[in-house]
Amino acid sequence: MKSTYFCVVNLMKSSGMLIVIMSLAFCGGIQQVLAQEDGIVLGSTRVIYPESAHKGVTFNLTNYTPWVYLLQSRITPWPREDMAEVSNTDLIEGDEKDNPPFIILPPLTRFEPEQTLALRIRLTRQQLPTDRESVFMLMLKAIPSQSSDTQKQNSQAKATLVLALQNNIKLFYRPSQLPMMDASSRAEQLQFIFHKGEITVKNSSAYFVTLNQLSVGGDKVNLAGRAMIAPFSQETYMTSESIAKTVDWQIFDDEGRPTPKLQRLLH
């Protein structure tokens, strides 16, 4: 059975068209399909922009649905409430912190069935920290087109509700001077402090670290939307344990895959 991710509803007590946007944020895993196997498929769940990419980087997505969409793409600052303690915008002065130094082309385009789109992302000015990664949000909004029959029906109705889907993907800017560290090394360098039912995770690296899972004494910790830990910062989580001997954890690599699970004794 085919699945779709938009619907049109006639509302009789208002006028005009109301577009309702459903947002999905890919904070971790390798979930790349927006609407199962017949939806819009993302090339990845995150974008790595190395400083050496002077001509920009490409992000691909494919429309495996039978419908035409209007695709809107833009880059925004990553929400501060989703950042542990320190963000790249703390290191940028003035109004520029709300104006990401990237452009994405095309920002608005028609997205045909079976079409693969190559979005081009380019750095427009160098104002970002060079001693750590910076993170931004790539926002992809797919608004479904309407057939002539649907448009005719809508013209007879007093209002139309169109449900669009917006996906928020992490865009990491990676300076060239950072020490080389693969995902396994980033996972291993994490430090853990357990005290009175709380576990503090310290990230001493220059890279963002996103936890896939964290367990204390065998019990999973609720990351509560705070799985990403900024460079040179830490995050504290509540646990159900008053006394714990071990901590287990995994993080996500650059492709959105979980690293091997690690375990360490707590002191």
Outline the fold blueprint:
Elements: E1 8-10, E2 16-26, E3 40-42, E4 46-50, E5 57-63, E6 69-77, E7 102-105, E8 108-111, E9 116-123, E10 134-144, H1 148-156, E11 159-174, H2 183-188, E12 191-195, E13 198-203, E14 209-216, E15 219-220, E16 228-229, E17 233-238, E18 246-251, E19 262-265
Parallel strand pairs: 2-11, 4-11
Antiparallel strand pairs: 1-11, 3-5, 5-9, 6-8, 6-10, 7-9, 10-11, 12-13, 13-17, 14-15, 14-16, 14-18, 18-19
Domain Pili assembly chaperone C-terminal: 201-258
Protein name: Molecular chaperone
Family: Belongs to the periplasmic pilus chaperone family.
What does this structure look like?
The strands form 4 sheets. Strands 1, 2, 4, 6, 8, 10 and 11 form a 7-stranded mixed beta sheet that branches. The chain has 2 helices and 19 strands. Residues 1-17 and 27-36 have low confidence and may be disordered. It folds into 2 domains: 8-174, Immunoglobulins (Immunoglobulin-like), CATH 2.60.40.10; 183-265, Immunoglobulins (Immunoglobulin-like), CATH 2.60.40. It has 267 residues and is mostly beta strands. The chain has helices at residues 148-156, 183-188, and strands spanning 8-10, 16-26, 40-42, 46-50, 57-63, 69-77, 102-105, 108-111, 116-123, 134-144, 159-174, 191-195, 198-203, 209-216, 219-220, 228-229, 233-238, 246-251, 262-265.
